[in-house]
Amino acid sequence: MRILGQILDDYPSLKLQYEQINAMQFLNLLMPKEQRKELDRIKSSMEDLVMTMEEYNNNFSDYGWIAYSLINVEFMKNANQVFENNGIEEAEEFIANYYIENSKNSKRFIQYSTNEFRKRVNIIDEAFEDYENEKYYSAITLFLTIADGVINDFTRNKGFFTEGVDLDCWDCLVECDRGLKKIKDIYNLPRKKTNEEIITMPYRNGILHGRDLNYGNKFVAGKCIVMLLAISEWIKDKNTENKRKEKYIKKANPPSLRESLKKLKETESTRKIINNWKSKEIVLGKDIPKTGEKEEYIHYDFIYKFVETLEIWKSKNYGELAKRFEIMFNYEGKEGYKPKRCRELFEKNILLDFELVSIIDQSICMKVIELEVKIQKEDKIIKDIMKFAMVYEGEKEVLAIPDKNNGKWKIYPRDISVLYK
After folding, report:
1. Rounded to an integer, what is the distance from CA 113 to the centroid of its chain?
2. Alpha carbon distance 360, 368 (integer Å)
3. What is the pLDDT of residues 285-325, one digit of tens each?
4. Is the pLDDT of residue 46 over 70?
5. How many DSSP H helices and E strands does the chain contain?
6. What's the pLDDT band for 15 if we cut at 50, 70, 90?
7. How far apart are CA 180 and CA 157, in angstroms?
């Protein structure tokens, strides 16, 4: 296994942080005692994270399990321990079961991670429903087509499994030779003969071309989920590659001790917030009213924003409504035409009233709102169900967290079929 310095050479920004910590330690005697302890703890935590990921990739990347930035560190440690004590078969069993137990979290992250995945929300729902019901054959084929389509949309000319697709990305954890590139090459191997033996790798050519017949199991399905998680991270990093390089160059000029320690604490704080988050049940009619004015929802930012949007819909302010439902009109290339498209749709659907049906606190950055709407369509009034996701996104931050107030809630339709009836 590589030593720490060799690993950090692959990740410039992480290496820079580590070097800054080491530089600070020369000033140990000048620091308050608590600050020295905090610095030692952060350094130890970073070393532990890097070496755990390296060991995990060494142990499992040949088998299709790879690390990504939001992977649970304790899970990786446990998997490494199972591998050391009991070998690869029991370790793979442990990992596959972990992804089954955490399938809902994986789905939520994948669905709203990038624009390319958001377009496929319904397909991802179907794939994970099959996965959770152990319908692995259908889930796996959907996972593979999602991967191909997402990368095709992003690169605009090549699917994930296309020969020559460029997966290079500066300072990207999953891009490494023991990450996305490796599993892409493995999964894309030619499968020229019909094979009836059980496989535990998602061989794309064998599965989609009907040569591998016995692929419906939790190992193949779980590895497909890891692949999608890695792809979503790669797209995010690729989208911010130039900005991250610029930021890195600026940071390379040694910051003050206080600034460096503050940044390290922020990173640690974000990870801690995510790991400690727990879903909260919101009881309609008790915690909040089923219907009402936006001020009655002031204690829940995402519901306040959503009800405010419904009020904008009621007031027929189509310019502002187009901004709130931005994702619905992204197909319109000309910015000035989006309010026009919004008017064309919503003037045929006049909102008269609404009643919240359910609020699902799905993740720290994503909530799902289901409501019954009363809509006037020309000379008739109808009632129907609509469903929306509220996703917390930052403009500059790679990962926005509501607790940090570094982003804003955006609306993503999940079921708006009533508008088109």
Report:
1. 4
2. 5
3. 999 999 999 999 999 999 999 999 999 999 999 999 999 99
4. yes
5. 17, 6
6. confident
7. 19
Spatial distance between the Cα atoms of 81 and 135, rounded to a whole number of angstroms: 30
Residue 255, pLDDT > 70, answer no
- Provide the pLDDT for residue 69: 87
C-alpha span between 54 and 39 (Å, rounded): 23
pLDDT tens sequence across 303-312 = 999 999 999 9
What mean pLDDT is predicted for residues 201-219?
97
Amino acid at 415: D
DSSP class per residue in 229-242: HHHHHHHHHHHTHH
CB–CB of 261/39 below 8 Å? yes
216: its two tokens? 């419906």
Report residue 418: phi and psi, to 5°. -60, -30
Where does residue 374 rank: exposed (0-12), middle (13-18), buried (19+ CB within 10 A)?
middle
Please report which residue ranges of 156-203 form alpha helices under DSSP H: 180-187
Query: In 3D, which of 65, 68, 69, 70 has the Cα closest to residue 83?
Result: 65
What is the side-by-side order of every strand in the sheet holding 350-363?
Answer: 350-363, 366-377, 380-393, 408-415
The answer to whether the beta carbons of residues 43 and 202 sit under 8 Å apart is no
Instruction: Enter the tokens of residue 66.
Output: 């790879």
Check if the beta carbon of residue 273 is closer than 8 Å to that of residue 403: yes
Going from N- to C-terminal start, the domains of the chain cover 4-273, 294-420
State the pairing for strand pair 380-393/366-377: antiparallel
User: Checking DSSP bridges between strand 212-214 and strand 195-198, what pairing results, if any?
Assistant: parallel
Q: Which CATH superfamily is domain 294-420 in?
A: NTF2-like; domain 1 (3.10.450.100)
- Amino acid identity, position 232: S
Query: 């699917």: which residue's tokens?
Result: 159
State both tokens at 35: 């600050």
The type of residue at 18 is: Y
Band (397; pLDDT cuts 50, 70, 90): very low
If you average pLDDT over residues 193-210, what whole number do you get? 96
Count other Cβ atoms within 10 Å, centred on residue 401: 18
Cα–Cα distance measured from residue 389 to residue 410, given in angstroms and rounded to the nearest whole number: 8
Instruction: Report which secondary-structure segment, H or E, holds 61.
Output: none
Say how far apart CA 229 and CA 113 lie, in whole Å.
Answer: 9
Q: How far apart are the first and last CA of the chain?
A: 60
Q: Given a cut of 90, is residue 34 above it in pLDDT? A: no
